[in-house]
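Lab notebook, design round three. We kept the backbone fixed and only want residue identities now. Task for the bench partner: fill in a sequence for the structure below.
Input structure tokens:
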């Protein structure tokens, strides 16, 4: 228990149904659907009369579920919770993120947060700390290549794992542009780790001298730019759209100008509605920043007199079933060799334990 003259902070036990229900009952009328499995740490702020004034949580670097009861919003309660959680996050990381409604931006700016971008009227993302968007842009400048002719493309890929379809898209962009920056999603939430995905991609594009691989960091399709925990009352389609807009706005405002990117390549989406919505958001937003979008028809292969679209999800499905022959139909030789180097069995075991997103 921690105290100051007006409030005291208590740390609830997130394994206790009573404590979790207490937080849920407080947050529900304020528009939050509290998920204890999606946080690492929570606090409850009380006043000296033992009334719950507010609550807050974080997961990794991201502050979540930060809310104050309406009749306490003119007090220092909000700043007390936000400052305490930020200090806890900064003890382990060099930055903290927060997502809020745009009307709350000034509250966090007043505590030292920097506003990165918004997707009106639902989401604003802010950050705090030493490792920030400016540092990431410095990293981009360090790998930037001179391109006199001016056609510079970007591709953002997860590659879980790297398939013939991914390779086809990169080769097409490399053939049509003087320079291609290939951003690899760095978030480690996929079946294959970031290190393994990076190595597979690197092996699969090594024959393309004008392709530069780039770490996506916190700013390219990461958990930091895809929040949804405080948009309880909005439709899932609208949430997905606004999340995509937030991610794309950050790309257009900060990343593309540093590397002089003027085109972006994506593959057509046949399976994942979220990716399809992301591509639609790209079509809407990129022209506002004078960036062209090239949507390339997904690569297909002929199998048993039938055309099949190449998909990383099909590879994972075949891997989980132990169908090596079908799996290898969708992969370049470089990925096959990488998998055969001991990774295939480890990933198969992982897939048997849990079903992860692609």
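Proposed sequence:
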């Amino acid at each position: 228990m921690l105290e100051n003259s007006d409030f005291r902070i208590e740390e609830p036990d997130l394994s206790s149904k009573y404590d979790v229900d207490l937080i849920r009952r407080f947050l529900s009328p304020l528009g939050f659907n509290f998920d204890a499995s999606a946080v690492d740490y929570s606090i409850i702020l009380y006043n000296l009369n033992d009334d719950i004034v507010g609550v807050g949580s974080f997961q990794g670097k991201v502050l979540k579920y930060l809310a104050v009861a309406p009749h306490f919003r003119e007090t220092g309660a909000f700043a007390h919770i936000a400052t305490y959680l930020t200090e806890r996050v900064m003890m382990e990381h060099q930055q903290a993120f927060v997502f809020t409604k745009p009307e709350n931006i000034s509250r966090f700016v007043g505590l030292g947060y920097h506003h990165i971008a918004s997707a009106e009227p639902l989401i604003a993302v802010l950050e705090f700390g030493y490792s920030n968007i400016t540092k990431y842009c410095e990293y981009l400048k360090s790998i930037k290549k001179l391109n006199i002719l001016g056609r510079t493309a970007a591709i953002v890929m997860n590659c879980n794992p790297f398939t013939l379809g991914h390779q086809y898209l990169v080769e097409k962009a490399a053939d049509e542009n003087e320079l291609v920056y290939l951003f690899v999603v760095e978030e480690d939430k996929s079946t294959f780790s970031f290190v393994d995905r990076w190595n597979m991609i690197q092996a699969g594009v090594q024959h393309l001298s004008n392709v530069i691989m780039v770490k996506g960091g916190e700013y390219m399709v990461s958990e930091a730019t895809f929040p949804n925990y405080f948009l309880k009352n909005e439709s899932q389609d609208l949430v997905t759209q606004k999340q995509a807009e937030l991610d794309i706005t950050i790309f257009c405002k900060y990343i593309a100008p540093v590397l002089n990117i003027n085109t972006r390549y994506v593959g057509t989406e046949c399976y994942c509605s979220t990716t399809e919505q992301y591509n639609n958001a790209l079509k809407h937003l990129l022209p506002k920043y004078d960036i062209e979008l090239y949507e390339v028809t997904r690569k297909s292969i002929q199998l048993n007199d039938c055309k099949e679209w190449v998909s990383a999800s099909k590879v994972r499905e075949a891997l989980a079933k132990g169908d090596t022959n079908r799996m290898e139909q969708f992969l370049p030789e470089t990925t096959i060799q990488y998998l055969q180097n001991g990774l295939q069995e480890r990933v198969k075991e992982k897939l048997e334990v849990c079903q992860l997103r692609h």
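Keep this in mind before ordering anything: The mean pLDDT is 88.
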